[in-house]
Structure formats: C-alpha cells, structure tokens
Amino acid sequence: QVQLVESGGGLVQPGGSLRLSCAVSGIIFSPYSMGWYRRAPGKEREFVADISAGGNTRYIDSVKGRFTISRNNAQKTVYLQMNSLKPEDTAVYYCNKGANGNFGSWGQGTQVTVSS
C-alpha cells in the first residue's frame, strides 16, 4: 500500500519561500508521474504541478515561474520549491500520482500559510 508523507509547510510572509517534500513508500517510484495538489479553505483540491518519469514538468498558470517541481528517484521523494509566495497560495498541499491521478489514498498534507 502506498504511503505519502508530505512535509515542509509553514507560515511565511508574502514574497517568501518554502520547499515541500513528499516521501513515497510502498510502490516502485521511478516509473510514475508525480504531482502536487492543494486545497485552499472552502475550495476543491486542485492540481498544482507534476513531473513525469522522464522529468517533464507541468504547472498551473498561477504558479509558473514561481514554483519548481523536482524528484529524486533514489530517495523516492518529490519536491516543490515555492518562491515569491502569495496569500492566494495558502492551502494544504498534497502529493500523489501526476496527471490528476491518485494511488487510491492521500497523505495528511502539509499546511502552507502565506500571511503578513
């Protein structure tokens, strides 16, 4: 059974940076596209970015140029570097299969709050 453990969130001022990590276990990691998703207060969970097995990346328009997704197959970890954070980036962030897929379960997520 897949386990997804997100970490790295916190409270940051507008313009600040955070680096999220997601440790994956229970699957053979390298063949899968992996993604980051977020759920803002009162909203549905939305796709943020994903990275294919070959390293191709995709982002929603609102984070392009500010967020960078990466992966380390040896450590079975996917990262999201978030720069120039805005209050509208406030959400719980989750990782899962890329391309709006999922492994059948979600981790607990990590809270990101952007506020002065």
Report on this structure.
This protein is mainly β and 116 residues long. Helices cover 0% and strands 48% of the residues. The protein is built from no helices and 10 strands. The strands form 2 sheets. Strands 2-10-9-4-5-6 form a 6-stranded mixed beta sheet, with no helix packed on it. A 4-stranded antiparallel beta sheet has the order 1-3-8-7, with no helix packed on it. A hairpin with a 5-residue loop joins strand 5 and strand 6 (57-59). The protein is globular.
Structural topology:
Layout: E1 3-7, E2 10-12, E3 18-25, E4 34-39, E5 45-51, E6 57-59, E7 67-72, E8 77-82, E9 91-97, E10 110-114
Parallel strand pairs: 2-10
Antiparallel strand pairs: 1-3, 3-8, 4-5, 4-9, 5-6, 7-8, 9-10
Summarize the structure.
The protein has about 120 residues and is mainly beta.
In which order are the strands of the major sheet placed? 2-10-9-4-5-6
Chain oligomer state = single chain
Mean pLDDT across all amino acids: 96
The Rg value, from CA coordinates, equals 13 Å
- Strands, total number: 10
SS strand fraction = over 45%
